[in-house]
Design goal:
316 residues; alpha/beta; FAD/NAD(P)-binding domain; 2 domains; 5-stranded parallel sheet; 7 helices; 19 strands; elongated
């Protein structure tokens, strides 16, 4: 890696709820944080429309508007928010080196990683066209908007089963689309799905296209591999539950991560295996994956970073 041309006390990589909350706390603690937003400033929430379950917004808000609010709050206390992405890291020395946009190297006393995770999609053009307008990758986030309506969800693992049963409490009918002839979910989750009367499981079923009226989802075209027939299901919501991919590629062989690529933090903290490097939000949380839990862990990361620097300063 090139020699660092700039040094900062606190570098934050990523700009979702976790990153911005970390920035707010770090700035108020006089850590003079510098944040790089990543390729998608604001993270996953900027790709959704209504957000109604984040405290402090009694009438709800738009995902992009909420991220704008968090950015303004972080900047109010002195955070430098810069557009750019981390392309390489070197955490082997006393100072942590991070390459930005493959050409600019920053050294930092502490690094807070909030690069988040990206939902896995089927890859259909219509899926992205109606993303936020009937298509979602989070039943807990968006299920409320489909109360008493018919919806479909694709997936075969524990997450799909859990989200299907969650949707069944809100929706009139839930179609669970399983590509093979069996679940990959645990027996307990399978039993829960099968004992929920308003969930209909469609095995050996592939999604061919999301159908809509140009504004919102109106149905989903599916293909049954056994009968070799196509059917259009009349639904207003389509949920994708085939997993998430943490944005951790540049940290491979540098930071400890699990088999899925999620960063591993020490118990009851945001400390990674490298001193002075902290992780928060969806990059290390594969269980809750909510904006509010990400924000909470961002607060934790900033407090951990502040205490780490204080301990170094006073030799503790």
């Amino acid at each position: 890696m090139k020699t660092a041309t700039e040094h900062v006390k606190c570098l934050i990589i990523g700009s979702g709820p976790a990153g911005y909350t970390a920035a707010i706390y770090a700035a108020r603690a006089d850590l003079s944080p510098v944040m790089y937003t990543g390729i998608v400033p604001g993270g996953q929430l900027t790709q959704t429309t209504e957000v109604e379950n984040f405290p402090g917004y009694p009438e709800g808000t738009q995902g992009t508007a909420m991220m704008d609010d968090l950015q303004k709050q972080a900047e109010r206390f002195g955070t430098q928010v810069r557009f750019g992405y981390a392309s390489k890291v070197d955490f082997s020395g006393a100072k942590h080196l991070v390459e930005i946009d493959e050409n600019h190297v920053i050294s930092a006393d502490v690094v807070i990683i909030a690069t988040g995770a990206s939902a896995k999609w089927l890859g259909l053009p219509s899926e992205q066209k109606y993303n936020g307008f009937g298509v979602s990758a989070c039943a807990v986030c968006d299920g409320f908007f489909f109360k008493n309506q018919d919806v479909a969800i694709v997936g075969a693992g524990d997450t799909a089963a859990e989200e299907a049963t969650y949707l069944a409490k809100l929706c009139k009918k839930v179609y669970l689309l399983v590509r093979r002839d069996e679940f990959r979910a645990s027996k307990a989750m399978q039993n829960r799905v099968m004992n929920t009367p308003n969930i209909e499981i469609l095995y050996q079923t592939e999604t061919k296209e999301i159908v809509g009226d140009g504004k919102n989802v109106t149905g989903v075209l599916v293909y049954n591999n056994q009968t070799k027939t196509e059917t259009t299901l009349s639904v207003t919501g389509f949920f994708v539950a085939i997993g998430h991919q943490p944005n951790t590629d540049i940290f491979k062989d540098v930071l400890n991560m699990d088999e899925s690529g999620y960063l591993i933090t020490q118990a009851n903290s945001t400390h990674t295996n490298v001193a002075g490097v902290f992780a928060c939000g969806d990059v290390q949380d594969k269980i809750y994956r909510q904006a509010i839990t990400a924000a909470g862990s961002g607060c934790m990361a900033a407090l951990d970073a502040e205490r780490y620097l204080a301990a170094k300063e006073y030799g503790n």
